[in-house]
Amino acid sequence: MSALPSVNVDHLINTRPMTPMQWRIVLLCFLVIALDGFDAAIMGFIAPELARDWAVSKLSLGPVMSAGLIGVAIGALIAGPLADRVGRKPVLICAVAFFGALTLASAFAPDLDWMVALRLLAGLGLGAAMPNAGTMVSEYTPLQRRSMLITVVLSGFTFGAAAGGFTSAYMIPVFGWKSILLVGGLLPLLALPLLISAMPESLRWLVARRPARHHARSARIIQQLAPDLANGQACLSVDEAPATVSSPIGQILSRGFFTGTLLLWLTYFMGLFLVYLLGSWLPTLIKDNGMSVSDAALITALFQFGGTVGSLLLGWLIDRSNPHRTLAVVYLLGGLAIYLIGTASHGFALFALLAAAAGFCMNGANACMYALAANFYPTQARATGVSWMRGIGGLGSIASGFAGAHMLGAGWTFATVFTALAVPALIAGIAVFLKGNVMPPSGLAQPHSLLR
């Protein structure tokens, strides 16, 4: 008898053109992250009207804002190991259902305490969705286009947030602030049937985790990826040795991964710290430096817009260069732009240019960190590695609120604030550069070593 035909999943995905099924996965993951962005930014849209309607101070809304960020960090830490054990698809579906249902419930919150609790719970789903969507895209896209497509999908977050802004501008004056929570809750729930029917499980996970148990499901996916190779009796494989540590958390903290994991965490913590601090406090800082409210808002919008452009261009660039050195340079240039904001005069054009440059570098580099993490960890621990980077980095976004309030409360000068903010960018640049010298254990992630 002849030997069973063998199909190497990594070789199949990396060497063939993208199929309609793969593009469908990219589109569905973009949809998930856009819905995530809409709901994650929703409190910022409704806060002024909520404060007026409930007769509470804007300061009292601080716990509501923080609750969502705390939930996101916890959700990412929980969802990664879960996705590595039970699969990417069920965790992604449950995350969307969870943040949709909790956002919908928030529309019926009777008071601020209930709103804090519901936003904390919604944050669990929001934190689980983005890293798992990024992981799914990384496992269905060819190596030479992977970083670009991951960052394109992640740009869905700013797309969703922007869509929420436009929707709020129209609906709140007509239907009230609760209507935005209803929309933000219903849209994810309406998307669930599409996600359940059209989103496959990760083929790499099926083959790497339990190939014999999942053989029938894997064969159906191969039928769509490569009909010419489809064979119900084919032997499927991936270019990874079996995991030597049973726990995904233990694996990302095991010898060979430990140093790289810590450097990924440090880089992303510093990156999110800066992005959230500038996104939250830049309008106040610019306004206090003598500019109008509208100019301050526009400059902050350019900071976000620069990040969207940076995500797309840098994703393309790191597919074609040494990603660690490229991101190190980008973080350092972002730190320089931030420092120069503090030395700039009152001219609107210069502030706008520097803010856009800072957003391009910091937001763009942060988006590329998902690709860097996905290409560092093996399939058995990839969702955990990406999600824990997001969760630990999320602590930086939480810390940014306290740091911004402290700097303003302490009376720091405009120049001093931005000089201090250049330091985290410097740390991020050094950390990601050092990460480039860290390799995973031999045989565990061989296909991905092409990026290092």
Automatic annotation (TrEMBL):
Pfam families (alphabetical): MFS_1
Keywords attached to this entry: Membrane, Transmembrane, Transmembrane helix
Limits of the Major facilitator superfamily (MFS) profile domain: 25-440
GO cellular component entries: plasma membrane
Location of the protein in the cell: Membrane
Gene3D superfamilies per UniProt: MFS general substrate transporter like domains (1.20.1250.20)
SUPFAM superfamilies: MFS general substrate transporter
Membrane topology value: Multi-pass membrane protein
InterPro entries: MFS, MFS_dom, MFS_trans_sf, Sugar_transporter_CS
Residue ranges of the TM segments: 25-47, 59-79, 91-110, 116-137, 149-173, 179-200, 257-278, 298-318, 325-342, 348-376, 388-408, 414-434
A single MF term (Gene Ontology): carboxylic acid transmembrane transporter activity
Source organism superkingdom: Bacteria
Protein name: 4-hydroxybenzoate transporter
Organism: Pseudomonas versuta
Organism phylogeny: Bacteria, Pseudomonadati, Pseudomonadota, Gammaproteobacteria, Pseudomonadales
